[in-house]
Amino acid sequence: MNEIKCPKCKEVFKVDEAGFADILKQVRDHQFEEELQNRLNIADREKESAVKLAEADVRNTFQEQLSAKDQELALLRAQSEFALAEKLNKKEVEISQLKSKIDNVEVEKTLAVNEAVQKIEKERDNLVNALTTKELEKQNLENSLKHQFTTELQNKDAIIKYKDDEIARVKDMKQKLSTKMLGETLEQHCEIEFNKLRATAFQKAHFEKDNDSKSGSKGDFIYRETDEAGNEIISIMFEMKNENDETASKKKNEDFFKELDKDRNEKKCEYAILVSLLESDSELYNTGIVDVSYRYNKMYVIRPQFFIPIITLLRNAAMNSLHYKAELALVKSQNIDITNFEDKINKFKDGFAYNYNLASKKFKEAIEGIDKTIKELEKTKNALLSSENNLRLANDKTEDLTIKRLTHNNPTMKAKFDENK
After folding, report:
1. Which value, to the nearest 10 degrees, does the dihedral of the CA atoms of residues 25, 30, 34, 36 take?
2. For position 264, what pLDDT does the model report?
3. What's the first-to-final CA gap in the chain, in angstroms?
4. How far, CA to CA in Å, does 217 sit from each of 214, 222, 341, 396?
């Protein structure tokens, strides 16, 4: 049990551990909230003090500059006034001395007085002008500082307004353009950039629109270049993609990789390049030239400003390997000749086999016909042999036929033969 003494009535209470912990928690929570509120109030006061202090520093700095100029001006004024008073006193002494001489030499006095007065007046005017100049310098300095401060604020506001106006103008312009117009504008930009250098850097290159859509799709432009022997140096399939900032469904560059690779293979181009303004906030694509050949072979994504550089880079690399390409083309042509020779041999073999099979079939049919003929001749032979035997028997019967046998038991025929005898 714990004892708690009331601060007012001084009475002592006994509470258990749970009650004591609950009271202690309430006191701590209350103290914490008070402490938190105090710290927040202190932080607010410190913040307000810091703001006021910053304003006071700016004001004091400006005031110090003005005070320094005032002190400088006051010092100059004091020095000028002191010098003037000193000179006036000195001149008064001189005038007094001159006046003492006037009694003796009237002409000399008049000349001296006039000269002295003119000199003093000139010096006085010079001092007044110097004082006026210092006043003007002070005023100019004050105006310059005020103008500089005001100009800086106005320039800052003007820059912010210009940026806001420019953003609004670009957005408004893009809203007025359709997606097709944006794409055509990018295509025209690339075509114009290429045509600027076509006559000097790409005299033997072909850069034309891809108008062949027999396969169901086509790219935007095809770049091809060959050497004097007709060997291809380099070929590139280009696709240009742009997008309005206000388009609801934003496209990504990778959405066009598959179709671009298909167009490259169908048109037998070595490289595929996507000239894109999509994903304008992407740090990857904003680097300029991005190699995506890990997804599709020999494919790059570039921003429009790298259109000519990528052609130059790939073209220079291809020129370095042109000798090897020529040798490869020669080997390929030799392989084609060998293949054609083998094809002719295989065609001759196939034709010979066909004719052999056909002749063999006909020969077999002829042999079978001969065998059948032989069998028929055998039958005829047997028939002839049988006929010969029958003829022999008939001949024998003919030879055995006599008048006696003919007239036997035939009195009529006997009488006829007897008459003929």
Report:
1. 40
2. 92
3. 194
4. 7, 14, 37, 103
Q: Report pLDDT digits (tens) over 245-296.
A: 445 567 899 999 999 999 999 999 999 999 998 988 888 998 889 999 999 9
Angular region, 104: left φ>0, alpha ψ -120 to 50, beta rest: alpha
Residue 342 pLDDT: 64
Report residue 292 as tokens: 């995506």
Strands lying side by side in the sheet with 289-291: 205-209, 221-226, 232-241, 271-276, 299-302, 289-291
Q: Is the pTM of this model over 0.85?
A: no
The residue with tokens 């810091």 is 50
Q: What is the pLDDT of residue 270?
A: 92
Residue 177 binned pLDDT confidence (cut-offs 50, 70, 90): very low
Strand 12-15 to 2-5 pairing: antiparallel
Count of residues making up the chain: 421
